[in-house]
Amino acid sequence: MNPSIPARVALLLGALTPAAFSATMNSLDVTKRHGRYALVADTFLEAPADAIFAVLVDYDRFDRISRVYKEHGYLEPAEDGTPIVYTRMEGCVMFFCKSMRRVERLETEEPTLIRTIALPEQSDFNYAVSEWDLAPVPGGTMVTYRLEMEPDFWVPPVIGPWFLKRTLIQGGTRAINRIERLARAEVESAHALD
Fold first, then answer.
1. For 120, phi and psi rounded to 5 degrees?
2. Closest Cα partner for 2 from 115, 108, 128?
3. Structural domains in the chain (count)
4. Is the confidence at residue 103, as pLDDT, over 50?
């Protein structure tokens, strides 16, 4: 029920491309093997890693990143205390529209790593693992985003890696610039409180 694989990735990658700010997507690779999609994107954001981290783990306001997120937030933690997060997205790729749901374990190493692992019994994916690696560099942060997923629903064969990559490049610009803008606002807000 999460938007389709392409829509989910477009949403997430919408968080990874260039536009009005300095955010720059350096590379994007999408592959499909045995029904499982893999995506790797390298992006530069002109914002500190801790501020980007804060934006990406703010599931209570996840719709700030993209309008594709229709429902989102934190659920009751797992028995071991690991945070559990929920997102429901809606989106269309060509003629294929889908609502997709993911319930995931959220593992973090602040401020450099965010990993989510889908709980298949509560999600529209048989498998989904994502990682955001945030590496501080002069002038900002290099962000490597990895996503590997296998949908629990039919995806039209025409929505292959080449089409998905094109869709992500086109739609990703807005999301990555929003993340950068939101991270900069986090920094400005922190400075205003000092």
1. -55, -35
2. 128
3. 1
4. yes
